[in-house]
Amino acid sequence: MSEAAPTGVVPVLAVVGRPNVGKSTLVNRILGRREAVVEDIPGVTRDRVSYDAEWGGRAFTLVDTGGWDPDARGMAERIKVQAEVAVSLADAVLFVVDATVGITDADEAVVRVLRKSGKPVLLVANKVDDERREAEAYGLWNLGLGEPHVVSALHGRGSGDLLDAALEILPEPPEAGPGELGGPRRIAIVGRPNVGKSSLLNQLAGEERVVVDNVAGTTVDPVDELIDLGGQTWRFIDTAGIRKRVKEASGHEYYAWLRTSTAIERAEVCVLVLAGNESIAEQDMRILQEVREAGKALVIAFNKWDLVDAERRYYLDREIERDLVQVQWAPRINITARTGWHIDRIVPALDRAIEGWETRVSTGALNAFLGRIVAEHPHPVRGGKQPRILFGSQVQSAPPVFKLFTTGRLDQGYERFVERRLREEFGFVGTPIEIKVQARE
Ligand code: GDP
Ligand code: GDP
């Protein structure tokens, strides 16, 4: 959600290594504390793997392959496949090894994957908590990946130098002149298996398909495709993942999730494909949550509309009320990817969502509006006090973030009221909104 991220192609840095070497700890160290943007949805597991990150003024997407515990059986094979998936998504890799343990067979399996990929790699010798331990890291030269970068992810030791080195191996983002957009709009088609993502992509691509090989000499990312739609060129993120040319097609949900999460993070706008003929599933909700949390524009496409009869329609409307209440703002379209029916509605919906996502409200207009809604509907009195909104400003767009300065904490209900009124007044179709409250004590 950094300001630098919305346009241009942000390079992807993946953190790989066997379990327990400290990948997640390193990712948290790189990100610093990250605020949760949205409340938890009960029953939905939160397990993000991709994040916007920034160092030295450069934005990149960080992919965390930690937090995943393979069972002991077949572990080496799964670590290898996991590394393959992560590496296929990435422009560069941080390969983390536990310096206190040394090189294991699993580490060596990952090294072979990394070599084969030809992607730039930095070897990270983690858990070097103090100087005495540095000697242990020297043994890692034997991996043949060059100099080990000694760090302590836990204590932060060496992490700045590591990031400096990481920036060196990441491809340069494209040059975007002032006021100019950095390349085509980035769109991710997401959804659980079999909802019709690849059918949709094939319909959209038609004969116009161009496989992105080396756009303007910048990020080489063979898994994206450029497609002309409605007189505009769009960059479809990770179409290899959508088309299932890759290995994880055979099975593990984790790999699909890794790709989905990374595609969302790299996109500006997401099309969530749902199967109109089936109930909204927990997996659908999980993807929705990820889109909201990542702060991306969103269009919801109910596919397989040819299979939706009157009875199903009745239940679907109930499900929408129940499950999609948090994303009422997202444009919804009904399509049949198989035949192309209503496919032409996608571009207008994308345009509206992106427009809402990028909307900026001037400080003057915002405060006139805030004055009005506060007069109409003051905050309820709580414990003899009545918090007031003193002033507000939109501190970011894409997605919109507002900061309200108040005399005290606002009720959640009141925050929701402010959000609802903001949407009524200024549009914000297709975009999550974040409201930050700074209370003067
Ligand atoms: P992952 O499975 O590779 O993501 O590993 P985790 O980040 O979950 O870390 C595994 C364990 O190693 C946790 O108990 C961490 O606290 C610990 N750990 C991670 N980094 C360091 C470090 O730099 N020094 C020490 N001493 N422990 C660490
Ligand atoms: P993906 O896994 O999300 O990429 O889904 P696919 O595009 O591979 O589609 C899964 C199955 O659903 C295939 O058998 C498709 O032919 C079928 N399918 C896709 N779109 C539609 C549709 O609009 N209507 C119907 N009836 N079937 C569809």
UniProtKB/TrEMBL annotation:
It comes from the Bacteria. Keywords: GTP-binding, Nucleotide-binding, Repeat, Ribosome biogenesis. SUPFAM superfamilies: P-loop containing nucleoside triphosphate hydrolases (SSF52540). CDD domains: EngA1, EngA2. Residues 11-174, 185-358 form the EngA-type G domain. Associates with the 50S ribosomal subunit. PANTHER family: GTPASE DER (PTHR43834). GTPase that plays an essential role in the late steps of ribosome biogenesis. Belongs to the TRAFAC class TrmE-Era-EngA-EngB-Septin-like GTPase superfamily. EngA (Der) GTPase family. This is GTPase Der.
